[in-house]
Amino acid sequence: MDVDIVAEAIREAEAATIAPRFRALTDDDVAFKGPDDPVTIADRACEAMLGASLRMIDDLPVVGEEAAAADPSLLGATDHDAWIVDPLDGTKNFANGWGGYAVMVARVRSGETTHAWIWIPQRGQMAIAEHGAGATIDGVRVQAGPVAADPTMWTAVVKKRYVPVEDRLVVDRFAARIGDPVEGIGCAGIEYIDLVLGRYDLLMYWRTLPWDHAPGSLLATEAGLEAIRPDGRPYRPGEDALGLLVGRHATSAVPHLDPR
């Protein structure tokens, strides 16, 4: 697959559907899928345009965030061959006029992520990963650097937003073992890139929807990091499971999420 053709399709869709609406949304342009969960006219327009472009490149089912919100049965394609699209990762940031947002695409084959793209428009930054072939950011090969083994030395994104009450104590204890736990910026695409570039040492997410994590987890693993579930299993985008640890020492962090 020519990864640059997909990257150009992503840039074109964002330039046509998202960029013109940045800081130009009206109240009618924003709706809510749930409490504190906005969707904008830009999300839907980008998903439609980008999905059509991807099908022209490789005629596979497109599992887009907004289409799957309306029809969850679409998620079943992520166990087979499909495109996965997050048309606007960081919608809340975008709607509030802040540039912390991304467009993300992953391609899965037999349920495994084989290719990933993350486009950060406000940085002009494109990350691409291909299974077994490594990861690049703006065309430069990237490999994550070393990280101290001691969790008290880590800066880690610990996302608590979707943690249920019955599991909050476990996550709070986990965060207490981290030297500098932060909530993150509300855009997984940027957080994954910043992990690879060394701004963060670990990412911990509770809700793991495929459009949020299939692209970034492949970027991380191709840059030499781990992306695993709290029980140590590798991340798969079609799996209906909770919890994801991503980083150089993700495996050693697993016992800290043990509920016992």
Q: So what's the overall shape?
A: globular
Helix content: 25-40%
Q: Strand sequence of the main sheet, in spatial order?
A: 3-4-5-6-7-8-9
Cα-atom radius of gyration: 17 Å
CATH superfamily of the largest domain: Fructose-1,6-Bisphosphatase, subunit A, domain 1
From N to C, what is the helix and strand string?
HEEHEHEHEEEEEEHEHEHEEH
User: Would you identify the regions where 5 or more consecutive residues have pLDDT less than 50?
Assistant: none
Strand fraction band?
A: 25-35%
CATH architectural label of the largest domain: 2-Layer Sandwich
Q: How much is the average pLDDT?
A: 95
Structural class: alpha+beta
Q: How many domains comprise the coordinates?
A: 2
The CATH topology of the largest domain comes to: Fructose-1,6-Bisphosphatase, Chain A, domain 1
Distance between the termini: 46 Å
How are the elements arranged and paired?
Elements: H1 3-17, E1 30-34, E2 37-40, H2 41-57, E3 62-64, H3 65-70, E4 82-89, H4 91-95, E5 102-109, E6 112-120, E7 125-130, E8 134-137, E9 140-142, E10 155-158, H5 165-176, E11 180-182, H6 188-196, E12 202-205, H7 210-222, E13 226-228, E14 244-247, H8 250-253
Parallel strand pairs: 3-4, 10-11, 10-12
Antiparallel strand pairs: 1-2, 4-5, 5-6, 6-7, 7-8, 8-9, 12-14, 13-14
Helix pairs in contact: 1-2, 6-7
